[in-house]
Amino acid sequence: xxxxxxxxxxxxxxxxxxxxxxxxxxxxxxxxxxxxxxxxxxxxxxxxxxxxxxxxxxxxxxxxxxxxxxxxxxxxxxxxxxxxxxxxxxxxxxxxxxxxxxxxxxxxxxxxxxxxxxxxxxxxxxxxxxxxxxxxxxxxxxxxxxxxxxxxxxxxxxxxxxxxxxxxxxxxxxxxxxxxxxxxxxxxxxxxxxxxxxxxxxxxxxx
Length: 207
Hints:
This protein is mainly alpha-helical. The chain has helices at about 1-10, 15-20, 25-30, 35-60, 60-70, 85-100, 100-125, 135-150, 160-175, 185-205, and strands at about 130, 135. The longest helix is centred in the N-terminal third of the chain and has 26 residues, at about 35-60.
């Protein structure tokens, strides 16, 4: 079970490609061309993955091949619905369309790193159960997200105040552990991004 979950979460780590895509580029590109290019790349990936999901659910041959190749990675509810990869790309694209880069980048990193650490630590060392998850996994998620917040406060062009990043990290951790009916891959980037955007606007209005 742990091995299968680790393989699933390796897919989550691909969201870190979005921050890496921005890193080191000049501020003109980050504010314009790079943002649009990133949105386009996520959208193309989403079209591809959702199309594959549709064919998997509708075409027996595609479903059979998919189950043989990736069946061990699927959860029961994904056998009759969208996979986590589709939800991941939907959440990333919505965040890319709505949030500025300084909020988008940590928000998707919270998902990629925080959710991965929550699963790996929870399955490996989890003992205290909360809402179907583990306290140990949630703390691992929080620490990982706080690390992302710290890095986000010092990297060029991210410009995210550490206090705002902490709010985002706590929100991402709550989105991961609380028993929402919304998929984690949607809830983590969108909820943490919203809280950080509101915090930035509050700071701006208060200055």
